[in-house]
Design brief:
By secondary structure, the protein is an alpha/beta fold. The protein is built from 28 helices and 8 strands. It folds into 3 domains: 241 residues, no CATH class; 199 residues, no CATH class; 131 residues, no CATH class. The protein has a 6-stranded mixed sheet with strand order 1-6-3-4-2-5, sandwiched between helices. The radius of gyration is 31 Å and the shape is globular. The N and C termini lie far apart (85 Å).
């Protein structure tokens, strides 16, 4: 008898998700993390609602799902993990809402049919989520602990950091238990503190909770009895990784890191797969943490390594600035790099460790305010060093070189892609990655390029017209450096207008400052000389007050500039005048222009 190779079948979602007692869906180790967001859930939800509203006779089709059945009882999701996971989260939201309604149902002869319909849907969902026959459901009703420990989806992905969230949601007896149990990102607010698992489940639960009993009955019945997928089962997939790379019939496109990690996994060899998995999971954990802080994500790490390697190995020529995509570089042009998965992981980890080591340096926080392309060239230079040897004294000089160049980008009207920026940096990258090329020569290269490409008077003219906020951070940094004073910033550092730009007193303030023209006033208040850095808590307190009030009257109150840790604010607290006027702004602006200009041109 011939062995089955492929078995395609059109199945209802309720049939597809209802497993045999010993079967379990499996997300393979090389698969991506759960990446669907509420926008994907909105599309799915609207598709179902539109189908319901259409009163169509034919079922609604949700695409193709490909399953590897080569391991007994393990239904390995080659394509379809995002949809399958989301189906289960929607079913769990339905289960909880149906349970609430049934527990409080006002039964009468007129509502008997509705009760039976709700009960049928609840019974079907319990069979799906908990493999629960009638006896099992009786046990669950007596003690919800009997619903726990039933595995329907086993997540083995090395890219999934929060796999427990799915289990905790499915096993929860109530929405509140699920919310209490799942992971919360530190320093995040509202729904942003949750993983995609809980965020999507919450989204469905809140939508379902708005349904009346009859509407919920109809929605559950349609979803369970008229929504379909094509299930393709395979028992002899010889190139599962290749299928994974090429088949993505619906949902989000695979990221570069997903594709490359799958290739690395496949090339790691059976005897080293566990080591690779351990390394990759550690990389993902660190990268996710740094991504939350908006420093670098895993695709950024791959890109930075590509820039380092292209310069180190001479994969491009002088004055050549075109770059291949990550997939093309790693999978086609230089696929030999993938032959050493563990060494590559060590390089990725080193890049992450460098960022972890320097992320809290004030100069790095300042640079992160600018065009993020600086990261590619900073890491090229720092990759020379052992992570343990990196200090502020090593980081600051090269960071300031990049800061000078990116200041010109910020103040001018030419972007990073212009030849005077990008071509110079690509050429200099050969020197940045070269341990034998000293820092003094790099600084000379930057000095020569800046002084021979731009005229100081033109940059100063642009600085006088500058009305945005990023250079306010630079001006404060340079002022603190001049006077050897404290400088640090965080997400609660505000840009403060000394002369308010708005507020209920604005007309009086403008008149008092001797400025009749509103346009002149708008230009003046946004100049560099009218802006300083200030702690959020102080800025909120003084708001749009008069300058005399902003200065603060007593040190103990810390209600004004006198309570700040920033140099400009502290000096303004001692300002000899109690009025901040047009000539004060102009004078402070000229000082800022001179300060930044000297820094840029290294004078």
């Amino acid at each position: 008898m011939a062995t089955k190779n492929i078995e395609p079948k059109l199945r209802l979602i309720s049939e597809y998700t209802m497993l045999e007692r010993n079967d379990v869906f499996e997300i393979p180790q090389y698969q991506r993390a759960y990446s669907w967001t509420t926008s994907h859930c909105t599309k799915l939800w609207q598709d179902i609602e539109d189908f319901i509203d259409s009163n169509a006779e034919d079922p609604y089709f949700f695409g193709t799902i490909i399953i590897d059945c080569s391991t007994p009882n393990h239904l390995s999701l080659i394509d379809g993990q995002q949809r399958t996971t989301t189906f289960f989260l929607l079913l769990k939201a339905l289960q909880l809402r149906l349970k609430e309604l049934l527990d409080n149902f006002n039964f009468s002869p007129d509502t008997a049919a509705l009760f039976m319909g709700l009960n049928r849907s609840y019974d079907t969902i319990c069979r799906i989520l908990y493999k629960a026959d009638d006896d099992k459901q009786v046990e669950m009703k007596a003690n919800w602990d009997n619903a726990r420990g039933i595995t329907i989806l086993e997540n083995n992905s090395i890219n999934e950091l929060y796999k427990d969230d799915f289990r905790l949601i499915i096993e929860a007896e109530s929405f509140k238990e699920a919310e209490r149990s799942v992971y919360k990102f530190p320093r995040k607010q509202k729904d942003n503190k949750y993983t995609n698992f809980f965020r999507n489940f919450k989204y469905f639960f809140e939508l379902i909770s708005k349904y009346s009993e009859s509407n919920l009955n109809n929605f559950a019945k349609i979803f369970l009895s008229k929504c379909q997928i094509i299930e393709i089962k395979s028992w002899q997939i010889e190139q599962a990784i290749t299928m994974f790379n090429s088949l993505n019939s619906t949902g989000m496109p695979l990221s570069d890191a997903d594709i490359i990690s799958a290739q690395l996994y496949s090339k790691s060899g059976d005897e080293r797969k566990d080591i690779f998995i351990s390394k990759w999971q550690e990389i993902n954990i660190i990268a996710n943490d740094l991504a939350q802080k908006k420093i670098v994500d895993i695709d950024g790490v791959l890109q930075q390594f590509m820039y380092i390697t292209r310069a180190t190995k001479g994969h491009y020529k002088l004055n050549e600035v075109t770059t291949p995509g990550l997939r093309k570089y790693f999978l086609t042009e230089h696929s030999e790099l993938l032959n050493e998965p563990l060494m590559l992981c060590d390089s990725f980890r080193k890049i992450l460790d460098i960022w972890n080591a320097i992320k809290d340096y004030p100069i790095i926080k300042l640079l992160l305010k600018f065009n993020e392309n600086f990261k590619l060239f900073l890491i090229s230079y720092l990759f020379r060093y052992d992570v343990s040897a990196i200090t502020k004294d090593i980081v600051s000089p090269i960071a300031e070189c990049l800061l000078r160049l990116f200041t010109i980008i910020e103040v001018g009207d030419t972007g990073y892609s212009a030849s005077k920026f990008k071509t110079f940096l690509f050429n200099e990258n050969f020197n940045l990655v070269n341990p034998s090329y000293p820092l003094t020569h790099i600084i000379e290269d930057f000095n020569h390029h800046i002084n021979n490409t731009w005229k100081r008077k033109d940059v100063e003219s642009d600085l006088r017209e500058y009305s945005k906020n990023i250079l306010v951070y630079l001006n404060e940094y340079l002022y603190a450096k001049e006077q050897n004073r404290y400088y640090d910033i965080d997400e609660k550092t505000n840009v403060e207008h000394i002369m308010p730009a708005s507020g209920h007193n604005i007309e009086v303030i403008r008149t008092d400052a001797g400025i009749d023209d509103p346009e002149e006033f708008a230009s003046l208040v946004n100049q560099l000389g009218n802006k300083i850095l200030l702690e959020e808590v102080i800025n909120k307190t003084i708001g749009n007050d008069w300058f005399k009030t902003k200065k603060g009257s007593t040190l103990s109150s810390k209600a004004g500039y006198i309570g700040s840790s920033f140099g400009f604010a502290l000096d303004l607290a001692k300002y000899p005048k109690d009025r901040w006027e047009k000539n004060d702004i102009e004078k402070a602006t000229e000082a800022a222009v001179e300060r930044i200009s000297k820094f840029v041109f290294h004078i």
